[in-house]
Amino acid sequence: MIDHRQLLDRDVFSFTMAGTGYSTGQWLGEVVYAALYRAGDWLAISVLRAALVAVATFFISRVVLRYQSNPLWAIAPLIAAVLVSKIIWGDRPQLFSLALFPIFLFVALSARLDGHARRAFVLVPLALLWANLHGAFIVGIAVLGVVSVESWLSGASDRRILTLVFVVSAAATLVNPSGIGAYAAAAGYASSASVVVEERPLDVTTGAGTVFAALLLIALGLAMLVGRDIVADRLRAPLLWAGLAVPFAALGMLHQRQLPFASMVIAPIVAALAPAVFARRVSPVPNVPRVTASLVVVGSVVAAAAFILIAGSRSPDLAAYPMAAVPLLRDRTGNLFNEYDWGGYLIFALPEHPTYVDGRGAALYPPSLIAEFQNAVALRPGYREALDRRGVRFVLVRPDRALAVALRDANWLLLGEEPGRWVLLQRP
After folding, report:
1. pTM score, two decimals?
2. Nearby residues of 50 by Cβ (< 8 Å), 6 or more positions away
3. By residue range, what is the domain housing residue 381?
């Protein structure tokens, strides 16, 4: 997009869907990453990741501390939310959503509860920006929608302003290359898909799943133990929090990629209600002198910058990818059947070989092609016909795949392998 001065609206990276129209819903996020990479290589990407995670942590801290100013009670649910968010710390535009969601949550809560509803208009340009950075912008609009509905149900004096913020912010998100179609793409972002782990329903056996499940169960348990009156007193707007917690918890359980947003909603509830179980009052906000706080912040930023310059990573860890297979394919021509997880790496490292499938998932590939890939690697009926129909000449997969074993038995030529990691085969 930078080189050609136009948005990418057709596939140019695969041979199975070449020329097919599609929208990623994150064109601006991709441009930002590409521009930073060209300006500062992998170090710039690492700095961007750190900055976006820091922004997310800062604003979710503000939300949690709003309801529990005693750090001893606030720290555990806050850490839990941050730990869950690690599942989307990969270097992708979804990090912009990680940073923007807690900003929307913090500003929306402040506007609703502090009598400064007009300040929420700052979210309008952020909504426009978010809709072009990443497809998960819909979760921010959902927060504004819940706040708007609750303000009418509660008879809040600022309900018209809050509703106007919601409507104008939603309208601003339509200023993107896909228009209203971005909402359809965003809805697809929240649907489950079996081929991608992070798009599957909640798995409580994983680290993030366990932490989120514990956070959710604790929140439910606390709400039942302390009773309705204390919930209303500590949360100030219990109907608002119910409107946020129920749909976001359900979304997190349906789709693992949404767990960070769900955790950010649940963490303040736990922080607010936990002391009540032990009959503890809400502690006053610690009074830290502004000069002292400023010195601590500036010192921390300087220390972090120094650490990045001295010890920051200048290259990514690509050990999980078939790096040694790239030179074996570079001078060969023909269609390549590849592992789904390796598609993005191959687009980057081997652009002269269009992929069979890659991490763009449902944004580009129809369910039939994803099923075709799964059937082929599992050696289900019709796999050979699929390889023939696609004109596949090379197969690059994990060596334990049933497909790899079968093709070796069928006398496909072994071009190279790394035991336990990858095997590259050529049609005889």
Report:
1. 0.89
2. 304, 308
3. 323-426
